[in-house]
Write a structure and sequence with these properties.
The structure is a single chain. By secondary structure, this protein is mainly β. It has one domain. Strands 6, 11, 12, 13, 14 and 15 form a six-stranded antiparallel sheet that branches.
């Protein structure tokens, strides 16, 4: 399993429209503190045997996996060197900010794009090739005001962006919030080594990784859930796509708890039943 190392802190070069952490300004430079820790990767590939029952890790908060990545708050046009995020990457990325404080009603959905915060981003490679990605059409959640009086962003709207190696290929990927509801949904942009940019992958609403097995290159995801049921998926990144190699569905009944394992073909390979002992 991925080993979470102690949180490391480092600074990152950022330029933006307003004084934000580690922005070079006339009076000096401020420091941006972001979380980071090292990941351990290998080149193991391949599916598991059909009769193998995986030991799914306990479901933990979705943000657990970001302990191995970088979290950045953006509150205006913000640019940074990609090498500051991942030493294996080069070039820079710029997040383009759009927030109209005069728009206070969500009734007119046609104007919603005015308050989503980050509406697009640009990647510039070391060869000065530029890529533009519009995310306004896949973002359905507005930027929120930070009400923490101890926060640098207090009373300012902001959006968080996340960098972590989701597909375990050795490069950090970009994640943005897509929508909120009973559970948060995200947009995933995987780093394309050949073009040195981030490519959007539509993974649907049910892919929410919470744990990684680096040795077997398995990504565990909270796929679905109801009041009495949880569905977890085990995925591998094969030929530039995620393949669900196994899933675990646990259902709580009044007198029993039933856990069913299915393989990559959605065939049942094992079932556990145990009493539902209630206090």
């Amino acid at each position: 399993m991925r080993i979470y190392l102690p949180v490391l802190f480092f600074t990152i070069l950022i330029t933006s429209c307003n004084p934000t952490p580690n922005v070079k300004i006339n009076n000096g430079t401020e420091d941006l503190i972001i979380q980071s820790s090292e990941s351990m990767l290998d080149n193991t590939r391949g599916f598991i045997a059909d009769d193998t029952i995986l030991t799914f890790p306990p479901l933990s908060p979705y943000w657990e996996f970001l302990e191995d990545g970088v979290i950045i708050k953006v509150s205006c046009d913000t640019a940074m060197l990609l090498k500051s995020i991942d030493e294996n990457m080069s070039g820079s990325i710029k997040f383009n900010w759009n927030y109209d404080e005069s728009y206070s009603s969500l009734d007119d959905k046609s104007q919603f794009h005015k308050i989503i915060g980050i509406h697009s981003f640009d990647v510039t490679t070391k060869d000065n090739i530029k890529y533009f990605q519009d995310i306004s059409n896949i973002t359905h959640i507005e930027a929120f005001t930070d009400f923490d009086p101890n926060s640098y962003y207090y009373s300012r709207p902001y959006k968080e962006v996340f960098f972590t190696d989701v597909n375990l290929d050795g490069y950090k990927d970009l994640i943005t919030k897509a929508s909120s509801g009973r559970s948060m949904h995200y947009n995933y942009f995987f780093y394309d080594v050949s073009r040195n940019t981030f490519e959007y992958y539509d993974l649907g609403c049910c892919f929410r990784p919470f744990d990684f097995d680096d040795s077997k290159k398995i990504i565990y995801s909270y796929d679905d859930g109801m009041a009495n049921e949880i569905v977890l998926g085990a995925y591998q990144w094969v030929n530039n796509e995620f393949v669900r190699i196994q899933c675990e569905t646990t259902t709580w009944y009044e007198d029993s708890i039933v856990t069913i394992f299915k393989d990559q073909y959605n065939s049942v390979i094992h079932q556990f039943n145990k009493p539902n002992i209630q206090d």
